[in-house]
Predict the structure.
Amino acid sequence: QVHLVESGGGLVQSGGSLRLSCAGSGFTYSRYAISWYRRQTPGKERELVASITHPGDTTDYADSVKGRFTISRDNAKNTVYLQMNSLKPEDTAVYYCNARWVGLNDYWGQGTQVTVSS
């Protein structure tokens, strides 16, 4: 059974840091491109925040988080991390993990809430 589980969200003050984790099981996690999305307002479309490819581990970031967020993966642990530094109130959102093998499978986690207070 496929599982994709986010953790690490919470409440933090502006300027603070959080590290989100995305753990996968039930599929060959290391062979998937992993992305983090966020939804800042209920009903609004999810915004791509960061991604890391397979193969090559090439990373990409939304302009709004470049220089502040870092995505990385530990294939031995089937986990991708999103290190978020210098957080701003506008980073407040539900953050979702996505695992994608283009043309084959597309998995989503349930989301984790990040709230940044001013």
